[in-house]
Amino acid sequence: MLPSTYKGPINPNGGFLCLSMHWRPEPSAPDPEIPGQKLSMASYLPTAPDAPCLCGSGQTYRDCCRRQRHWYPICPNPGFQGYSLVALQSATFTSIDGARWRERLLDDSRLHCAEDSPQRGFWLYWGDPAVDDQYGTLCFGDIELKNGQTLYITAMSDVRMQALLDLLTELATAPLPPPRMSYDKVEMIDKVTGKHVKLRLPRTAR
Ligand SMILES: [Zn+2]
């Protein structure tokens, strides 16, 4: 899976592992937009020690992620405004008015509807403007409407989740109750042993 275009050596102390998600039309579909498919990609971004750290901390790479024991992946922020450390997470809003939310979500140009059935709606957040590359349109998170009364938001980083929550706040006609948040473990590489380990991103690194 690694790397897509980079041909040099991969060094956990010399750069970042970058995860991205693309949406692209199904080649054989009569309507090129629906149904489409999600394509996840990993690439390696070599980084100079004195370059600004790609995790977005504001420090140099030498003083930040290069010193970490674990090799944390990063992912692009919405609109491709820099990167953030990957921290898989979800937010659940229950007892919402599904019919009204469906209308609002279908109307929003920053979202791409991938499924709209009586039981389920599914939207990909493309941002504004959407960013296309040779693999498709970059996706920055998902919104799922379940059973007409639950909104389930998934995002790969804190910055992405905040962008999605800001979007929902903007679309809501009344203040939303706080969502139930859940954080998943992320697979990363121990730089000392070379082993893959699953860890939660430490709160202090957020
Ligand atoms: Zn960093």
Q: Which keywords apply here?
A:
206 residues; Alpha-Beta Plaits; 2 domains; six-stranded antiparallel sheet; four-stranded antiparallel sheet; 37% strand; binds zinc ion
Commentary on this structure:
With 206 residues, the chain is mostly beta strands. It folds into two domains: 15-87 and 184-205, no CATH class; 89-183, Alpha-Beta Plaits (2-Layer Sandwich). Helix content is 12%, strand content 37%. It has helices spanning 98-107, 158-171; strands spanning 15-25, 36-46, 70-71, 74-76, 83-85, 89-93, 111-116, 120-125, 132-133, 136-139, 142-146, 150-155, 180-183, 186-190, 196-199. The protein has a six-stranded antiparallel sheet with strand order 7-8-11-12-6-13, covered by helices on one side. The two termini are 27 Å apart. Zinc ion (ZN) binds next to loops.
Break the fold down into its secondary structure elements and pairings.
Blueprint: E1 15-25, E2 36-46, E3 70-71, E4 74-76, E5 83-85, E6 89-93, H1 98-107, E7 111-116, E8 120-125, E9 132-133, E10 136-139, E11 142-146, E12 150-155, H2 158-171, E13 180-183, E14 186-190, E15 196-199
Antiparallel strand pairs: 1-2, 1-10, 3-14, 4-5, 6-12, 6-13, 7-8, 8-11, 9-10, 11-12, 14-15
* H and E string: EEEEEEHEEEEEEHEEE
Give the termini distance in whole angstroms. Answer: 27 Å
Main β-sheet description: 6 strands, antiparallel
Total of domains: 2
Hetero groups in this structure are: zinc ion
Strand order of the largest sheet: 7-8-11-12-6-13
The radius of gyration is 18 Å
Summarize model confidence as the mean pLDDT: 89
Count of alpha and pi helical runs: 2
- Secondary structure class reads mainly beta
What oligomeric arrangement do these chains adopt? single chain
* Beta strand %: 35-45%
Q: Write down how many β-strands occur, each being a DSSP E stretch of 2 or more residues.
A: 15
Q: What proportion of the residues is helical, as a percent range? A: 10-25%
Low-confidence stretches: none
Q: Give the overall shape, derived from the CA principal axes.
A: globular
